[in-house]
Records
---
Amino acid sequence: MSSRLLAAALALGGLTVGQTTGNFNFLTYNVAGLPAIINNNDVPGDKGTNANLIGTVLATQEYDIVHMQEDFNYHAYIYATDNHPYRTPTSGGVPFGDGLNTVANYDWTGLVRKKWNKCYLNSGDCLTPKGFSFMRMKIQGIEVDLYNLHADAGSDQGDVDARSAGIDQILAYINANSQGRAVIVAGDTNDRWTNAGRSINKLIDAGFSDSWVQLI
């Protein structure tokens, strides 16, 4: 799996360089919250206890914004120990929810959840309404459109096609709803840079830059 944070280089509509400066901490995290009977994660400890620990880490590391994926059946355990003042309500466990949640130090408006139009049953991708979420957040006086995604998993051709179609879908939504605005897309892309032209590269071609690549 690959979790990526991509920030739009071309989306600071109307702002000039130096007009506003600041910084914030952002984490994207697949918390592996599938029921233990489906996936026990092959790590020590029960999943409820481990989810408690995840919430504690999110609180103590003082991240300003955290996008989570696979936040399904142990959602309440994470929220019990996390201390962010703003949190998305869960959309439900497996098979009802999309597993996408956000906790933050900043409030937001307009939370929307969208299911992928295309999925491939391999890796259980069609068992939950996987897709992306959208919210508009004001960070230190600047409005930013935030997208959280969990792409189709697997390496079969059907997986690759579904993943590529999902990126096309989210890019179409961004073009329709976030034109000229600051945009951050973060999540589990389930992809690699070496898969040229399929998903991550489509985001780069659309004008996004990968913050991990820029920093590392």
Note: The radius of gyration is 17 Å.
---
Amino acid sequence: MSKHNLPKSIRKYIRLAKAKIRKEVFDPQKQKESIAGLLAQFVKKQ
């Protein structure tokens, strides 16, 4: 199981931003790139 390391407000922001990206961007590859960029802002690699 994954542990939630981010506050609920940030998880909510990420969820809504991902939904917005999926609505606006039609190319699946660009969607993945945009979402990866969004997550890179918040998630720290260990």
Note: Residues 8-40 form one domain.
